[in-house]
Amino acid sequence: MSSSKNHQEPGRDRSPRQTRPRTLAKTLVIVLAVGALAAAAIWLPRGRKAEAPSPEPPADAQATNAPAPVAEARPEFQKLKGKWLRPDGGYVVEVRSIEAGGKMDVGYFNPQPINVSRAAALQDGATTRVFIELRDTGYPGCMYTLAYDPQTDQLQGVYFQAAMQQNFDVVFERMK
Q: Which are the contacts of 69, defined by CB distance < 8 A and separation ≥ 6?
């Protein structure tokens, strides 16, 4: 008798059809979750790098009873404050404030407000970078990864449209 891997015992169906197929919605949720984790894995190390304390503490920090120094927002980040318009669709990013560690208070409008789940600025060498993640109806984890160009006073970069799993090159111009 020859043995075959495809041979099955009667009454014992091992075919993949026995498991319930995933719906398109469940598959999309899994793909989006994996994409968000991958983006976080790429972005978070840079974010931590920007939040690291400077290698030279202030002179008064050496004293034993000196008060802790107050963290001031980086001057590079202050250039990001204001309203920015994406001319190809009328989308607006409003940078209200930026903490010393880079955490940003940001509004996003199309033209109505869209929930910003997190936003941060970081300094990457000479480049000031901005990360904005949206979590709202129609915006399930969409992300902007932008860099500030001081010569043109623009935010330039990529918009990840999560539902379509596509990247788009974008530019935001400062609104005056």
A: 57, 58, 60, 61
